[in-house]
Each structure stands twice: as C-alpha cells, then as structure tokens.
Design brief:
Structural class: mainly beta
Number of helices: 2
Shape: globular
Helix content: 10-25%
Radius of gyration: 21 Å
Largest sheet: 12 strands, mixed
C-alpha cells in the first residue's frame, strides 16, 4: 500500500480543491457548428427553440458558427428561450468577418436571435444581434453587446413591437441600434414603438437610425446618427 505523508496529503487536497474551483469558475462552453446541431442544445418546437435543462445549471458560453437566425426554418415570430437563472451567459459569433453593407441586405457573418426571451445573471453578446419582440424580454443584472464596425451587429425591434430590456446596466459598442417604422403598403402599416431600457445605458461608437420601407417603390430611407 502506498503511504503519503500528511504534508503530501494536504498538498494533494489543496491541488484537488483548486482544480474543482477552477472548473466551476469557468463554467461550460459549447460550439454550435451548423444548424443541424441546434437541436443538440435546444428543444425545437413550432413556436420556439428553448435551451435544454442539461445546459442550465452552470455559467454557459455558446460559440456560434451558424449565420443569421438559429431558428431560420421556423416562423418569424418563433422565440429563442434561454433561462439559466443566476448563472452568466456569453454568446460568441465565430463566423469570419465579411465586407457587409452595414445598412442593407443579409449577412453571412451575422448571428441573430429573433424574439429573444433570455434570462441570466450577466449576459455578454459578442457580434450577436437581438431582434426584440413585445412579449419577450432580456433580463439580467448586466447586458453587454460588443459589435464590430465591419459587420451587421444589431439591436433592433420587430414590427409593431414595444420592446423592453430589463437590466440594471446596459453597455454596447460598435452596434447598429434600429428603432424604425416599416410601412409596406400591401401588408398594412407597421409602426415600431421603440426599445425601453430599464437601467443605466452606456452606448459607444454605435449608430442609431429609423428606417422606412416602401414595398411598392422598393425603396428604403435611413436616418443614422452616431453615438459618441
């Protein structure tokens, strides 16, 4: 039988305890490489994709390589539901940067969460867009959105929505913040009612704009202004 001195035993116990604490501190990290892997981490129904219970018990980092919406094959009003309670959430866009037009068209480098219903202690979104609906919200102590001036990273409100971000502290940089009116004539009038941030907001190097769209004339008008 191998015998250890009390000093050696205490050292091993200290190392073991440190390893456990470090593993808890870093939380769990997963990568979604393609749209078929979404179902590994989310329950997918006709009206929502919801983070599975197995991934809700720890700090969570999701690395995303899926361009545009995770739920692209679902209806436009489908929700993205993530509730990890008092744990921290980070979402990283791992798509390579492209020369996207910042004000028009889609984006192969964009990661987009439509109608997000997200709750966590602290949320960090790196090159990840939020398109907010009325009945859903983002709730956290802090929400940090980090964009890139070479990609279409957006905080926007959906048609006919009055969106709320329920946080104590909101920080954003290099973002496009869209609060606009959409009026496609054959579909009726869509009137966005804005975004309410319940706590303090600090928005740097970002563009705020309204957008009016006429389907009849296939014309878009933008009124951007930059934050400082």
């Amino acid at each position: 039988m191998l015998k250890l001195s009390s000093v050696t035993s205490k050292t091993l116990l200290t190392i073991g305890a440190t390893a456990v604490l470090n593993s808890l501190a870093f939380g769990a990290e997963y990568t979604i490489n393609n749209r078929s892997e979404v179902a590994t981490y989310f329950d997918v129904t006709d009206d929502a994709i919801t983070l599975k219970d197995a991934y809700r018990s720890d700090d969570l980092t999701l690395n995303v390589k899926v361009s545009e919406r995770l739920d692209k094959n679902l209806p436009d009003d489908a929700k993205v539901v993530i509730d990890i309670g008092e744990h921290d959430l980070e979402i990283k866009n791992l798509n390579p940067l492209t020369d996207d037009n910042l004000f028009t068209g889609g984006s192969e480098s964009q990661v987009e969460f439509d109608n997000p219903d997200i709750k966590a202690k602290n949320i960090t979104l790196n090159r990840t867009s939020l398109i907010l609906g009325t009945s859903e919200t983002v709730k956290a102590d802090t929400l940090t959105m980090i964009g890139n001036d070479k990609s279409r990273d957006e905080l926007a409100v959906a048609a006919n929505a009055a969106a709320t971000i329920d946080v104590k502290d909101f920080k954003a940089s290099n973002m496009r913040v869209l609060v606009g009116n959409y009026t496609p004539s054959q579909y009726g009038e869509y009137n966005n009612q804005g975004i309410t941030i319940t706590g303090d907001a600090n928005v740097l190097n970002s563009t705020f704009f309204n957008m009016e769209t006429s389907v009849q004339k296939a014309k878009k008008r933008y009124s951007p202004f930059k934050s400082k």
